[in-house]
Design brief:
Keywords: Cell inner membrane, Cell membrane, Membrane, Transmembrane, Transmembrane helix, Transport. By secondary structure, this protein is mainly alpha-helical. It has 6 helices and no strands.
Length: about 170
């Protein structure tokens, strides 16, 4: 179980650092472009387009960290109604359905990415980026997210459970 917990932490850390890297590059290119433009030196073409791609990376590569951190919106009003075994069953079912949903998203995203790659589809913007590149980043983020959710489900299923109440000893006297 400790190995699974460590893998979950490493997956979340990788997700966090990849997302943070996208944010850092995004901030740097925007600041450099604004400075160069305001100094009258030049305007970097394609910054807006690159910023959009970096935002996609920031969001999708950060999903696994956000999940592990508990940063997603929860419906506590509904979730608080479950207790004990019902809570555990609800949690496992919801996690399994969530994994299935994101796997479906990944499947169609991979199909789109492969189609873009096979047909050499490029963006219509200034940068003329091969679209499979940002689409592959999106797929990588979804894959990290799935790994994190599967690890969480395994922890939920195999993790510590409340010990059953001890059966009182029957005296024979």
């Amino acid at each position: 179980m400790n190995r699974i917990l460590r893998l979950s932490e490493k997956t979340a850390a990788l997700s966090k650092w990849l997302s943070a890297g996208c944010l850092l590059v995004l901030v740097v290119i925007v600041i450099v472009d604004v400075l160069l433009r305001n100094l009258g030196i030049l305007s970097l073409s394609g910054v807006s387009e690159a910023a959009n791609y970096l935002q996609i990376g920031l969001v999708y590569l950060g999903l696994a960290f956000a999940y592990q951190d508990g940063s997603f919106i929860r419906m506590d009003l509904l979730l608080d109604r479950f207790r004990g075994r019902a809570e555990r069953v609800r949690s496992i079912v919801i996690k399994a359905l969530s994994i299935a949903t994101v796997c479906l998203m990944l499947w169609f995203s991979l199909k789109t990415t492969l189609n873009s790659y096979e047909h050499s589809i490029v963006s219509i913007g200034v940068l003329r980026v091969e679209l499979f590149i940002p689409q592959a980043v999106l797929c990588a983020g979804l894959l990290l997210f799935i790994v994190q959710m599967v690890l969480d489900l395994v922890i939920e299923i195999c993790g510590p459970r409340a010990a059953p109440a001890p059966v009182p000893a029957v005296s024979s006297s």
